[in-house]
């Protein structure tokens, strides 16, 4: 891991101390790249956040990344031949390979056959920081479209569960399609719900067997094996519920909608009442999730490819979508804080939570983490030990990490990890 962030430089002998480069030096760096087609307001925004504008010239050289489906290692040569390019092993992240930037992954047969996943290496690092192991109950609070949830499920193996939540139904439906494509849904359940208020407990296998044994329950009230071909009556009921939600009669948060569950996700055999059981704060400490990912919606300014789209969308759109949205009082920032708070509330004592965004701004990253730590005495920021050898830098507060396209050769990403202490 390198020891500085743009605009800030680490004092060499003390890993966690910083000094500011100074405005003038930063300006001169900016003057050098003044031939970039970036508007002045955006350059000012980058300066305020200590982000080197030249990262936005790096897209031509930033590689693409794929993750090989576990078990497909022996087919690597065949995949390379079909894609007509070399897949270079990423030596700091198991299972990941880099490809030349111009390769279209989605068009390849290997992708269509479910042998590779399209996922940036920085995103893979965020999942790695969670240290998922078999048996964990994992919550992904912003799950769609699902690149990270696929990796979680591959790491989980054949015990434990993953609960995916997303407020956008169409995006979560796409996530369900991906899980089915890679045959990964067995231990997963997906809810359309607001992650800032989602409150359902992980389903433990012992509670399922208890419920299966209950002789007094109405069998029709229990979840059977999931099928996309649901009876007409049930589809009508779901459509009605959706209509009510969209006309604001029922908030998404009040009624999480289960849109997928696998055979071993803990849902089959449960009654609807058992599924909708929420956890009190006391129960959470022992029955909460072992691992939580809050991969929050953000302004996406760490993604070079995303920022370049504003050339087509118009730079005025950038003002609204990026520059205004990163203010500390904006809806985007408040939503990120609420997601982090709720993710942490659902974490059991001793569990791990990773907060990540693909923004490089301080307001959406370090400021959020600092505010959150101030208000939660039981939250402790953790060193990301796995990062030894990762090509990232320290964030503006100790123990947080930043990936940026220039130095990491990945898409931009901020990562922070916290644990919950017993109180
Ligand atoms: C950065 S994307 C997540 C990417 C995902 N983790 C992956 O690896 O594919 C952020 C997601 O957060 C969702 N989102 C935004 N606000 C939310 C909320 N209040 N509750 C749950 N999901 C939310 C968006 O719909 C979007 O799909």
Automatic annotation (TrEMBL):
A biological process term (GO) from this entry: RNA methylation
Positions contributing to S-adenosyl-L-methionine binding: 166, 194, 295
InterPro entries: MeTrfase_RsmB-F_NOP2_cat, MeTrfase_RsmB-F_NOP2_dom, RCMT, RCMT_subfamily_9, SAM-dependent_MTases_sf
Domain SAM-dependent MTase RsmB/NOP-type: 51-421
Active site: 358 (nucleophile)
Keyword annotations from UniProtKB, A to Z: Methyltransferase, RNA-binding, S-adenosyl-L-methionine, Transferase
Domain of life: Eukaryota
A GO molecular-function annotation: RNA binding
Pfam families per UniProt: Methyltr_RsmB-F (PF01189)
Family: Belongs to the class I-like SAM-binding methyltransferase superfamily. RsmB/NOP family.
PANTHER family: NOP2 YEAST -RELATED NOL1/NOP2/FMU SUN DOMAIN-CONTAINING (PTHR22807), SAM-DEPENDENT MTASE RSMB_NOP-TYPE DOMAIN-CONTAINING PROTEIN (PTHR22807:SF16)
Protein name: S-adenosyl-L-methionine-dependent methyltransferases superfamily protein isoform 3
Organism: Theobroma cacao (Cacao)
